[in-house]
Amino acid sequence: MITRLEDKDLKRQSRRQLLKLAPVAALGVFAFPKVSDRLVAAGVRFSDWASGVMFRSQHPAQTFSNAEVVPFAKFPYNYYDVVDPQVDLEKWTLTVEGDVQHPGEYKLAQVQALPKISQNTLHVCVEGWDVIGSFGGARISDFLALVGANTGANFLEVECADDYYESIDMASALHPQSLLCYEMYGQPLDRGHGAPLRLQMPTKLGYKQAKYLNTIRVTNVLKPDKTGYWEDQGYSWFGGL
Amino acid sequence: MSNEEEHEENKDAGPHPGSVPAAKSGAVEGVEAKPETVAAEPAPAQPVAKPEEPDLVRAAYEHPLPIRITHWLNAISLFVMVTSGLRIFRAFPSFGPKIPEKVLLDIPKSLTLGGWLGGALQWHFTFMWFFVASGAVYVAYQVISGHYRTMLFTPRDIPGVWPMARHYFFFGPKPPATGQYNPLQKLAYTSTIGFGVLSLLTGIVLYKPAQFSSLAFLFGGFHLARVWHFAAMCGFVAFIPGHLIMVLLHGWSNFYSMLSGWKREPEYQE
User: Fold this and answer.
1) Domain locations in chain B?
2) What does the alpha-carbon distance between residue A40 and residue A35 come to, in Å, rounded to a whole number?
């Protein structure tokens, strides 16, 4: 739509319209790292909140046939400092703490006595690769029932033999595919994959799948700056798939 | 239009009772209004052909404010999404299996944003919201206002693509400008909306493959969604240099129009 107007009118109109973009130009402050650091930290918090809202507590993650599972030799070992933290498998017990009726030390046999779930699911790394693995273990929800956990609490914290630590939202912990995993490919977990017990949740990213579990704690409050080994360095806390 | 001109025009038109709307003229007769009042009414039914005033500029308000705001927000977001996305890709620069991993493409660090994978993800997870919000507002505004007609590529534009491409790339004759955008521009701008939708949908699959498992299935699973997501980025990366070169070639007035909305002396008529 072409109009004809005097040069000075066009210039005035253009200037006025240009000024309306000033708020966009003000976004330039985010070019300063001090400001942008806070912006992206808020962005990740918002994304984590949205992830919690999007989470479908009963919706199963995809499962695969045995033919689709990658060979055990091609399931990568991922660790942050040592692949084998020298857990004494004979003396090992799982410490249960926090908002539970029966806190204390639990033996692997007590976990294995719970109904066993075997599933072929996708293990997705935050780096962008994924492998289909075969996992076996007890539902976290069954174990929480065994120890009399308050499942109305917000979080589950875990600590590991290699000083790794993690925390997850209760809804994800109670998901029917979320396991306390003691088997991969039908064999007891090997040391590199987290013997004797690890988390295996196909609705979470790989770095949430803590290995060599030592302690499980049910809590309503997370320690600030100690929500997870990678999370404390800047990864998303929710880490959900 | 200045008052002076208006006055002159009315003098030319004179007090024609026929040019006054019927209802008005009845009222005028009733109160016996002064002829000056009648004469002061503009005469829309008989526009007087006016010679082109030399001091008037042809201009078009091409880009309404919502378009300009979303254009620049989207430009910033796209820049962040591409550069942080490339940093994320560096963490696993392949589309194949983890073992054995082949480095498909070694992207220079200097082209990336975020410093490390975690930092890049923070940028990506923050600006994905701005990217989607600005895109959604843009599309909604285009549709509701009807402004999309200036830029939407339709089958009618197909015959005009080749002459325009021949002009740009092979120095062919310049086809006459028929609207705000030529067919090739429409094709480019409409494509970017396609890239945006593709990057959003595949991004949802990569971000939440378990929650949106049906969508993941639609794109052929997590692996292929990653390929499609990369392809959408390539689409944008192909668009941007062409877009910037064209902006450079068309000069300041064209660039300024995306800031002020007003295009001075547009090429097209009407």
Assistant:
1) 1-56, 60-264
2) 9
CB atoms within 10 A of CB A67: 6
Structurally, chain A folds into a number of domains equal to: 1
Cα–Cα distances in angstroms (integers) from residue B234 to residues B51, B131, B228, in the given order? 51, 16, 10
Chain B residue with Cα closest to A78? B98
Predicted ipTM of the assembly: 0.91
Topology of domain B60-264, per CATH? Fumarate Reductase Cytochrome B subunit (1.20.950)
| DSSP-based three-state secondary structure for B121 | helix
Residues of B in contact with A21 (CB under 8 A): 65, 68-69, 72, 259
Q: Do A128 and B88 touch (CB under 8 A)?
A: yes
**Which of A29, A47, A209 is the best substitution to test chain B (most B C-beta atoms within 10 A)?**
A47
The residue in chain B having the minimum alpha-carbon distance to the alpha carbon of residue A202 is B210
**Amino acid (1-letter code) at residue B122:** Q
Reported as a single tens digit per residue, the pLDDT across B195-221 is 999 999 999 999 999 999 999 999 998
Condensed to tens digits (0 to 9), the pLDDT of residues A81-94 reads: 778 888 888 899 99
Start-to-end Cα distance in chain B: 19
